[in-house]
Design a protein that fits this description.
Helices cover 46% and strands 11% of the residues. By secondary structure, it is an alpha+beta fold. The chain is globular, with a radius of gyration of 25 Å.
Length: 514
């Protein structure tokens, strides 16, 4: 569905599910710069990996693949980014953009607190720090993204420009007022339950919400209860996240979460979660959580947090689960019930969009007098671009490429700027000009990470993985002055394989010649 119903496009795809990791660089290479460099430039990050696809136990042989260019790119070169960008907000009205601004603000503020809570609860405990590392990284990435969205929103005066654009459309086409007012009324209704829905979204695995970042105790409780209830339905009637084709993945996630579970940290996060829930305005309370009197007692009485018991629970019916009288499982069922009410509201809002948006968007396009690209919605898109730098502020010019020289210069023998010894040994003086990352003015957003970057001959020249700080608010509108995506230069990947790993056979399989 494009533009809330202006266009419907049927896409047929074949899913190849057996993908096996062949090579990933050391973490110090793949995450070089950490959160300090995240959403920033210049970058020297080797954020890539290599997988091999299998079908019926044999390596998959596609009809076509992007051959690798050993020549790479130069400033001014044409490139294309092909991928599945997640969500943009360019077709929204000003009221709807203000709603998204509130959401980014809440996310930035809440996640900042949760990061501090997790880091404090695990400080000095190596096992705890490892357990929460993935969640902290996710929260930090989204928190910094939220701050970037807010900064770009203000810098680009996005809300004021959108209100002016809305007024211009309505002045030229008064008949669009009804659809515009309908969207405004829907947005106002969303505000009445915003705080409740924002918090509840962090514990549910449902629909497109597949990576909740709330307390794992609540996430696991919700998942176990929801999975049991959905299994009672015919497969086509299930929530998409619990259909038969993904059951194995859900079970795998239920098992893997144990590695990321650290009781002290989860308790601390749950304390803050409950504090926020109990501070919600009257009428927005999360009823499922009101019965929690003591977190320590809850943890002591539940068996859900034991991996073996949780895997048994995953196979049980709703009746069997309820018969356990497990307090955390019971909270899970209550959360599912509360989520159902929220999902019903969201479905109704989505229905209103499908009814109101098409007329409004057709009017906007008519006013523009030219084609207007629809918002990203996780479907395949191609963005044409050129390799080029940018000027983030007066007196500062960012060059479009970085090299090993900059990587070595950043090295301080401590995370997140700790270059592995093997990489330092290979980065001899004659190698320091080897490329690492590059900028282009492609139109990318969340979901484009991992997208192939190819040249005009269809040769792979890079792998997209980030955007610059000034471009985070690109989700609200493409600005050619600062719209820059960041990619790993494929020559860095090849350099790692050849000079550091000595992976001759893998280079041959990739059909790379000197």
């Amino acid at each position: 569905i494009h533009d809330g119903g202006v266009q419907y496009v049927l896409q047929e795809m074949t899913e190849l599910g057996d993908v096996r990791l062949v090579y990933a660089p050391p973490r110090a290479v793949g995450e070089f710069g950490g959160e300090i460099d995240n959403w920033s430039w210049p970058r020297h990050t080797g954020d890539f990996s290599i997988g091999r696809v299998y079908v019926d136990g044999k390596p998959y042989r596609p009809e076509f693949f992007f051959p690798i260019s050993t020549k790479g790119v130069q400033p001014g070169d044409f490139v294309m980014v092909l991928g599945y960008p997640g969500t943009t907000f360019r077709s929204l009205t000003a009221d709807e953009m203000e709603d998204r601004h509130r959401w980014f603000s809440a996310r930035a503020n809440v996640y900042r607190d949760w990061i501090n809570i997790l880091e404090t609860a695990t400080k000095g405990n190596v096992a705890g720090e490892i357990a929460v590392a993935d969640l902290v990284k996710t929260l930090a990435n989204r928190q910094k993204n939220g701050e970037g969205q807010l900064a770009g929103f203000k810098r680009g005066r996005i809300l004021g420009k959108q209100r002016a654009a809305d007024r211009a459309v309505l002045a030229a086409f008064p008949n669009a007022q009804a659809s515009y007012d309908g969207l405004a009324a829907m947005t106002a209704e969303k505000m009445t339950t915003f705080d409740h829905d924002f918090l509840l979204d962090h514990v549910r695995v449902s629909g497109t919400q597949l990576t909740p970042t709330g307390p794992k105790s609540l996430v696991m409780a919700f998942t176990i209860a929801k999975a049991a209830l959905e299994r009672q339905k015919a497969d086509p009637d299930r929530d998409a996240a619990y259909m038969q084709r993904v059951v194995a993945r859900i079970r795998d996630r239920v098992e893997r979460e144990q590695k990321n579970f650290f009781p002290a940290a989860d308790k601390a996060l749950l304390v803050d979660f409950l504090r926020r829930a109990r501070a919600l305005p009257k009428g927005q309370q999360i009823a499922a959580l009101n019965g929690i009197a003591s977190i320590d007692d809850l943890y002591a009485r539940t068996k859900l947090l034991d991996l073996n018991e949780r895997l048994k629970m995953f196979e049980e019916t709703p009746e069997q689960l309820r018969a356990r009288k497990d307090p955390l499982v019971d909270i899970g069922f209550a959360l599912v019930e509360e989520n159902a009410a929220m999902s019903e509201r969201k479905d109704r809002w989505d229905g209103a969009v499908l009814r109101l948006r098409p007329y409004w968007r057709r009017t906007v396009i008519r006013h523009a007098g030219k084609p207007v690209a629809p918002d990203a919605n996780s479907t395949l898109r191609a963005s044409f671009a050129h390799v080029q730098g940018y000027v983030p502020r007066d007196g500062m010019r960012m060059e479009p490429q970085t090299t090993l020289r900059g990587l070595v210069e950043k090295h301080v023998d401590a995370e997140p700027f700790d270059v592995p010894d093997a990489v330092l040994a290979a980065a001899t003086e004659d190698q320091l000009s080897a490329p690492v990352n590059f900028l282009a003015d492609a139109d990318t957003t969340g979901g484009n990470s991992g997208s192939p970057v190819v040249n005009g001959r269809g040769e792979l020249v890079g792998v997209n993985f980030d955007r610059v700080w000034e471009n985070v608010a690109n989700d609200f509108g493409y600005n050619p002055e600062v719209a820059r995506n960041i990619s790993v230069d494929v020559r860095y990947l090849l350099w790692m394989l050849e000079k550091v790993e000595k992976a001759t056979e893998l280079l041959q399989e990739l059909k790379v010649t000197k």
